[in-house]
């Protein structure tokens, strides 16, 4: 009788590793295909062309004697926007754009109200990270500031 060779499991282990690796790659491809890949904004390219004007507006805002202040009162669920006193006598028009980086569907825009101090309710906003973009004009000069807001 001839002695039998002991069976080794290495060929089966190598095949199992390749099968598990292929399954993992297939799972990752499936997850990548299901992920929403929205642009930051639907008119992204149009906004990119206006970039230089935006930078001039940011520089003009930074040159104001007092900064544009945005305060969030979590207890009262209120957001207060305070414009510099130097803009008090001028007709200020503009908007606040609430931008949610994680979900474009939650973005919304509110018009600026007359007066240097303006209050907005945050009661209906979902908790999380928001960017507030204040875009306004005063005396035919454009101003822009972007602040971060964390609602808990």
Word description of this protein:
By secondary structure, the chain is an alpha+beta fold. It contains 3 helices and 7 strands, in the order H-H-H-E-E-E-E-E-E-E. The strands form 2 sheets. Strands 4-3-6-7 form a 4-stranded antiparallel sheet. A 3-stranded antiparallel sheet has the order 1-2-5, with no helix packed on it. A hairpin with an 8-residue loop joins strand 3 (92-99) and strand 4 (108-111). 7% of the residues are buried. The mean pLDDT is 88.
What key phrases describe this protein's structure?
single chain; three-stranded antiparallel sheet
The percent of residues in helical segments reads 25-40%
Could you tell me the mean pLDDT? 88
Strand order of the largest sheet: 4-3-6-7
β content, as a range?
A: 25-35%
Largest sheet: 4 strands, antiparallel
> Which regions are unreliable across 5 or more consecutive residues at pLDDT < 50?
none
Structure classification: alpha+beta
Summarize the structure.
This protein has helices at 10-34, 44-49, 51-62; strands spanning 69-73, 78-82, 92-99, 108-111, 117-121, 128-138, 141-151. It is α+β, with helices and mostly antiparallel strands and 152 residues long.
How is the topology of this model organized?
Blueprint: H1 10-34, H2 44-49, H3 51-62, E1 69-73, E2 78-82, E3 92-99, E4 108-111, E5 117-121, E6 128-138, E7 141-151
Antiparallel strand pairs: 1-2, 2-5, 3-4, 3-6, 6-7
